[in-house]
User: What shape does this take?
Amino acid sequence: MLPKDFRPTELYEQRFSVSFDYPVVFGHGVLATPDTTLAWAVAHREPERRHPVFVVLDGGLSAARPTLVKEVERYVKSHDRTLELRAPPYVLVGGEAAKNDPELVSSLLAAFVSAKLDRQAAVIVLGGGAVLDAAGYAASMTHRGVRIVRLPSTVLAQCDGGIGVKTGVNAFSTKNLFGTFAPPHAVVNDLELLGTLPLRDARAGMAEAVKVALIRDADFFGWIEANADALGRAEAEPLGALVRRCAALHLRHIAEGGDPFEMGSARPLDYGHWAAHKLEILSGHELRHGEAVAIGMLLDARYAERTGLLPAPDLERLATLLVRLGLPIYHPALAEKTGGRLAVIAGLEDFREHLGGNLTVTLLERIGRGREVSTLDESVVGNAAAWLSERGGGA
Ligand SMILES: NC(=O)c1ccc[n+]([C@@H]2O[C@H](COP(=O)([O-])OP(=O)(O)OC[C@H]3O[C@@H](n4cnc5c(N)ncnc54)[C@H](O)[C@@H]3O)[C@@H](O)[C@H]2O)c1
Ligand SMILES: [Zn+2]
Assistant: This one.
C-alpha cells in the first residue's frame, strides 16, 4: 500500500484521446464486379488514390464456394483504379484451428512482409469469427497495425465478433490469451455470404443474438421467440433481420457503453462466456463458440433463478428458445471433473485472471436486463450444471 498523501515530486501528466470511427455496411453479393461497396470500404478515406490490398480467405468458406478465389481476383481487377492486389488470395484454414496454431499466424505475417504491405495497405479478410480474429491479430501487429477490412461470413461474425474491435488467438489452453484491440478500417456484412453456411454454424451464431437480447433488449428476445421456427431453419429473411438488429445493439454497446477497450472489469457482452470459453477448450473444440455460449447462458440463468435473482418463467423461456433454435443446452464437458471439482469452474478463475483483481460476472435479473455480481457459489454452479444435464439429456 502507498502512503495516502504520496505525490511524485516531478510529474508530467500525459493525456490525450483518440477517436475511432469505421463504417459497417450491409450488402448483398458484394463480390459481383459492378458492385462498388467493397472498393469503397477500402478507399473511403482516400478515394482518389490506388490502394494495395492483401486478401485472406477462410478455408471453409472457399471450400463451400469454390469460385471464391476467382471472384476476388476478378473483382479487384475490375476495380484496378482503386485496388491493387499485392499477392494471390491467401487461404487460411477455417474455424478454431486458425486460432490454435501459432505457426499459422507466423506464416501470415511472413506473407504480409513478402507482399510489402505498408501502413497505407489494407488486409481484406473474408471469413468466420476465428479467421477474422487470427488474421486481424496478424494485421494489427504488422507495422503496428495495417488497415483491416472485414467481410464476416458467418452469422456470429456478422452480428458480433466481426463488427467489434478485438482480435485474438488461443494459447496455453486459454481462449483469446493473446490479442489486440484493433478497430477495423471498415466492415462489409454481405448477407449473401451466409448462403453456404452449414445450418449448425448459422444456429450457433444466433446464440450471440439471444445473448445481447437477454442483457439489453427484451423486445428483441420476444421477436426471436416469435420467429424461432424459421430461424431454426436459417431462413434468409428472418436471419438477415436478426443479424441487423443484433449488430446494431452490439455496435451501440461498443460506442456508448463507456468502455470500448475493456479497461474495467464489467463485461456485459460476455454474458454466459466464462463457462463457454472453458467448455470450448474442455470439449476439444467439439462445441462451436456459439453452442458453448448457449450452454453457458443457460447455466448462468439457472444459477440466477436458484439464487432468487431471475424469475422461474424467464429461465423457462430461455431454455425453450434455445432448444427451438436447435442449440445444445448440454455437453458432457459440463460434467467433467478434475480433482473432485467441476472442471468448468476453472473457467471462473481464468475469467478472474483475465480481468485482474475482482471477478465481475453478469447475471440476469429478468429477460432484457443484466446485473453484475462479484462471486458465484461453486455448489450452486454444480447444481445448475446437474439441472442442465437433466434438461439436455445428459443424465
Ligand atoms: N473478436 C471478437 O470480438 C469475437 C467475438 C465473438 C466471437 N469471437 C470468436 O469467433 C470465433 C467463432 O466464429 P464463428 O462462429 O464465426 O465460427 P468459425 O469462424 O469457427 O467458423 C465456423 C466454420 O464455418 C466455416 N465457414 C465460415 N464461413 C462460411 C460460409 N459462409 N460458408 C461455409 N462455411 C463457412 C469456417 O471455415 C468454419 O469451419 C471464436 O473463435 C470466437 O472466440 C470473437
Ligand atoms: Zn461470444
Observations:
- The two ends are 50 Å apart (CA to CA).
- The chain has 16 helices and 13 strands.
- The longest strand covers residues 51-58.
